[in-house]
Amino acid sequence: MATESHIQLKLDAILKKRRMTKRELARLADVRHTLIWEMCHNKTKRLPLDKLAKICEVLKVEITDVMELVACKKDAS
Fold it and tell me: Any bridge partners for residue 71, and if so which?
């Protein structure tokens, strides 16, 4: 079996830990609520870096706190 990696976003866990809503973060970071929702549910297809930077600034976290590289096994078939 080969391994393949993907990016896992941890934004939902950060918001839950801080008891902050997705709408509140969207308002504070001045980004669309749908982008925050997509990030929290790992449905993001395109992530503008300026928006990610703004989210990190508002939450006072590093990019590595928001995302991680996860390895998953892939069938060789």
Answer: 5
The CA distance from 77 to 64, in Å, is 33
Q: DSSP code of 2?
A: E
Averaged pLDDT score across all residues of the chain: 93
Which domains occur in the chain, in start order? 2-74 (1.10.260.40)
Taking a C-beta distance cutoff of 8 angstroms, is the pair 69, 7 a contact? yes
Residues of the chain with pLDDT > 90, as a percent, come to 78
This prediction has a pTM of 0.84
Q: How far apart are CA 50 and CA 32, in angstroms?
A: 13
